[in-house]
Structure formats: structure tokens, C-alpha cells
Amino acid sequence: MKTLVKTLILLLFIIVLASCATTSAGDTHIEKKQEQKKLLFEDWKYKGFGQKLPDWVEAAYHNKTDKIIHSDGELNGKELLILRGEGINSDQAERNLELAESGISEEYTFFDSSWVRIDAGEYVALAIYYKETL
Asked: How many CB atoms are closer than 10 A to CB 124?
């Protein structure tokens, strides 16, 4: 009887170890792949929820409107306006962005916004507005 109990406990222990080993290996592989692609930014809006960095963010950070238009066909043939707010944390960066947004013309339409943390520890909030070109 003791041998049977010891065997069951040993089997149960092996099953628990095997299940833990398989779940952690898959998660780190995905995260490492994403980190290699985006080395410029350490953190961004909704990263904690598993959302990837929007395609337009890096282009907007570098002020490259042609790449933003290429990343989203909806913006093709429109005049873009990139607004930026910087701060020591994401809240301050977004507040500074809101101040910049208050001064734009009503003819511009909001497209999207996000914030990122650069590897230096600074936060930058970015927003894209567009207007129809004649």
C-alpha cells in the first residue's frame, strides 16, 4: 500500500512539473520576438494588456509622415499633423499633448494617439490629426 501511495505522489509531482515547464516557455518566446523588433521603446500604452505597438507610432516619433500614410491607407491623400507632448511619466506627457491639441484648427480630424517610454526613461505622447487636401 505504501508503495502505491509513493508511486502516485511521484507521478503527480512529475505531471505538475511538466505542465509548469510548457506554459512558461511559450510566453517568453513571443515577448523576446517583440522586444527584438522594437528596441527604441521600453513601454507603450496598453502594452500591459498584451497590445502590440501601433505601426504608426515609431514613424510619428521620427516625424515621418510618408511612413504613417504607408502604414494606414485611410490617411492616403490627406495632410497630416503630428502633435507631441513630453513628460517624466505618461500622465504628464498626455497632459502636455492635450495642451498642444487645444491650439489646432477645427478643420483637422483626430486619427489616433498613444504614448511611449523611451529607453532613456522619458515619456512621449503622440497624436495624429488629418485634414482633406483640395
From this structure: 22
Of 63, 68, 88, nearest to 78 by C-alpha is: 68
pLDDT in tens, 89-118: 999 999 999 999 998 999 999 999 999 999
d(CA 70, CA 87): 29
The set of cell numbers assigned to 1 is 500500500
Distances, alpha carbon 121 to alpha carbons 65, 66, 85, in Å? 25, 28, 15
CB 85 within 8 Å of CB 124 = yes
Cβ burial 75-111 (10 Å sphere, 16+ → b, else e): beebebbbbebebeebeebbebbeeebeeeeeebeeb
Percent of the chain whose pLDDT exceeds 90: 50
